[in-house]
Each structure stands twice: as structure tokens, then as C-alpha cells.
Amino acid sequence: MIVDRPARRAHPRLLGLLGGALLASAAAAATLIACQDTSSGDGAGGGAQGGAAGPGFRPEGCAFSIASREEYSDFQHGRTEVGATPNLRRVRLGLGGNVAPGAPGHADPSTSIGVAWQSDDGTLVSQVAWGTTPDPASWPAANLAEGVTWLTPAGTLNSSGDERMHEAYVCGLEPGTTYYYRVGGGPAGKAVWSDVYAFATTPSDPEAPVTLAVSGDSRGQQQDAWRLLQRQIMKAGAAIQLFSGDMINFAPDQAEWEKWLDLGWKDADGTLLATGQLLTLSAHGNHDNHTSLFFGNLVLPQDLAKYPKYAELFFSVDVGPVHVVVVDDAFIVSPSGDAEYQPALAGWLEADLSAAQANRAKVPWIVTMHHHPEYSSSTHGKDADVLRGRAFFGPIWDKHHVDLALAGHDHDYERSKPLTGPVDAPTVKPSSKDGTTYLVCAGAGADAYASSTSSFTATSRDYKSGSALGFYSLLKATKGKLTIESHELRADGSDPVFDAIDLVK
Q1: In total, how many domains does the chain have?
Q2: What is the CATH number of the domain that holds 338?
Q3: 404 in any annotated domain
């Protein structure tokens, strides 16, 4: 039985940007269907969301399933057709997995990876092949996994038609290992393959130091900033890339999504960039607006057994000594969009963060990320929706002693002093070990906002003038120290550090 869920409502701010009639169409196209792989034995039906059957797929060797969405068409797997002009393009890494704490197949970037790409409509084969050398001829024949393909409906702005999408997943990889892969496939003599890409699984050993790249708000793609950023984080040796939302300006604009993907996929000279070689974990932003283009273009964990209604909207992973929590805050800051979301998210956060707290001796750092900042002194800092987010998240972060809370939305940089509640009059604490540090780090292509300061501000900066095009941060973590190292993004690649601080236990 297929169960239709209420259509996602367009975010009020985006309604203002695009107009009610257009966004009503986009919201209707973004109805989320709860699906499971009926052959997998996962058994949906647990939890407050209930369960439903629908077209799904269990990737071979993986303990999780993925599912289609109501707005997709032609969802299938196991096909071998290769079109006349395959044009395998916009290859990007992501991650599959379940999200309930302790669940089999929990999202794990140390042992698994997901990959997505596009092709011409006639190419249905959806395979990924991999090995530990750059030469595909040396890869074991068994290192070949079947994926799925479907058509994502065209956006309602700048449409070039429905998009033929593909996803494939690989599980059972070795932690902290460099792999090479390519996507495509097909019958002998007719197979077509992409370039060979490289990626590294994250370390599972919490003693291993890791670097996480942080940015947000690439919408607008001004001054080639998103492409410049992908160059720089490749050089930084990051284990993963964290992006706090707002990839594009107008959610139903297919051309904008394609530009964002193109700028992150390849450089102007054809050199392969980060999105096909570095795992990017993204939060949903208000400009992304739950459209099918958001879900179709990203590869994020979706727990069909426990949270089928909210696939790809909240999840957590361990990366070395860091527990990373990524959530969609749209129905927290604008709760009328979906009244069921807040209790569902609160329950999941309580379970996830309680488990993370109990595991502190092994994985000591807890870092959260969502779009709207709890504490900001810039353009949106006193907006009603932002304050609603603060009221919801602040007490949860306090209870579980979250070390660092990442956000975007305001296109500037602001790092808070260590804070605890009450949320309407935050208490400044003497040390990072006594409170949460809140970090707004945005400007990966969006227009600049003016920075400001408040009583809770440790430092702030904007890029309205000078050489900076935006900002990004590198989180350098060991078991005993979490360093925030923040850079200006510059056209010449010099990218000076302008803020650095160590969080300690």
C-alpha cells in the first residue's frame, strides 16, 4: 500500500521571493512518500511515523534500503541499456544508511559510500565499480554494485526536461582507506564509464586526527566562490565536507542546481574537484524548500524503518573523534509547515545525543549543524523564525553538552563565546568545556551581509569589502582538542586564517 503524506509547504521566506502561485506548484511536487523495500525484510511500521510499502531497493551488501519518492518516475534497477549519447556527468558522493541509534546499517562513512550522477534519458545502467588502485583493470571483478535509476521531474524554472538520475551504494569498505571508482556500466563491448575518481573512507579509530571542512550558503554562485571553495578543501585534506544549507536561490530552478553541481564537480580545465571525491553532508536550507530537486541531487541517509516520512532530513555520523549531527530545521523555525516534525525530531535528537553522551570516552566531541543560527548579530539574528529555532535547540544542546553548533543563513562569520541558557538571556561561560560555541560560517557564493556583535559574540567578520569572497572553516579534531580554523575565501587562493581557537575538554 502506498501512503500519501501531506505536501510540504513552501517556506514563508521563499514564498515571498518567488510568489505564492509558483511555490504552490513546487510544494505540491515535493510531497514525500514513505517507502520501504518490501523484499528486504526491514519491516517498516515502528515509531510514530508508521510505515508504508512502495518501490524500494536494498543495495547489495548493505544493511539499509533506499526508496523512490512519489514525484519520481521510472524508478528501477538491474537495467543494462546504454543510450546513444550517455553523457555521464555531475558525479557526486553522498551517504546512505539508517539513522536510529544502534540500528543495523546506521550511516557510517568509514565503511560505506553513496554516489549519484546524471546521464541521457536512454542510459539506464547504474553500476559502480571500485578498487584500491587508479587502474580499473586491476580491480576485482566482484567489486561491482548495481544501483538504481529514475527520472526527477523538471523544475518549474529554467527547465530542460526531466533529469535521468542514478544512485549506487558500496558497503563493507575498510576504514581510513583510499579507494578509486567509476560509474556507468553496460553489456560487454557497449559499456560506458565515467572518469576514475578517488575518495577516502573516514577513520573509525577515534584516536585518528581528522579535518572537517565547513561552509554554507552558496546560493547565487557569485564570483565562482563555490568552485574556488571546492579547490581549497581538496587541498586541505578534509575527511568530509559539512554544508549548512541554501545551495541555490530558487528551489525549483533546475538550471541553478545544475550550475551548483557543475561548479563542484569539475574545474574550468576539466580537473576533478571535491564533490565527486569528498563526501559532502548537507543540511536543508530555507531556499532549498523540500523540492524534488533537493532530494534528487543529494545523497543522504534515509531510515525507511523508523523515519520514513523524513528521509534525508536528519542523521548523524561518527568521524574519528567527532560525532556529527545534521538536521533540517525548516519545520522547527516555521512549525506550521508540518506539526508532526518537531516531536519526531525531538525524540530522535534525545535518543541520538543520549547515545553520543554515553560514548564520550570513545568519541569525545559533539558537533551539530542546521541552517538557521541560534545566535547571530547579523541580518536575521532577531527574526522570529530564528528565535524559534533558538528556543527549540538551545535547551537540547545544553542538556547534552554539545561542543559546537554550526549554522549559516546569515552570510557572514560570527563565533560566539561559550554559552548556556536561558535562551532569552544566554549565560557566557568561562571555558569551552562549560558551554556550547555557536558558529555562523557562510558565504560560499551568496551575497554578503553586514556583520555585527552582541553580548554573546567572541568575534565577527563580513566580506562586504576587501579581498574576501566568503568564508569557510576547518575543524581539526583530536581526542583532546577541537580547533576551529577559519579562512577568508579569496580568488587568488591565498585564503588567510582570520580566526583560530581551540575547544578543549
Answers
A1: 1
A2: 3.60.21.10
A3: yes
